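Thread: "does anyone have the structure for this chain?"

Original post by V.I.:
We have the sequence but no experimental structure in hand. Need at least a predicted one for the grant figures.
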Amino acid sequence: MKVCRTMFAIALLTVSLLTAGAQEKPNGRSTPSGAAPILVIDSFTHDFGEVKAGTPLRFAFKVKNEGKADLVINSVSPG
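Reply from O.Q.:
Generated one for you, tokens below.
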């Protein structure tokens, strides 16, 4: 019985290690050692001031990647 438990523990540990090692990064890409994206935004907010109701508003935030890896933006939503 003790041998069965030991074999089960070894098998479980092996499967756990193989599963953890096989997982990819969330975006499916790997980055070289030391390389990472660096998101730079001049301003995180914008004030339109006083605006009449119904006036269409538009503003573009400038986003820059100063890192050495690809910057992946998966989604953007208004605040």
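V.I.: this helps a lot. The longest strand covers residues 39-41.
O.Q.: and The mean pLDDT is 76.
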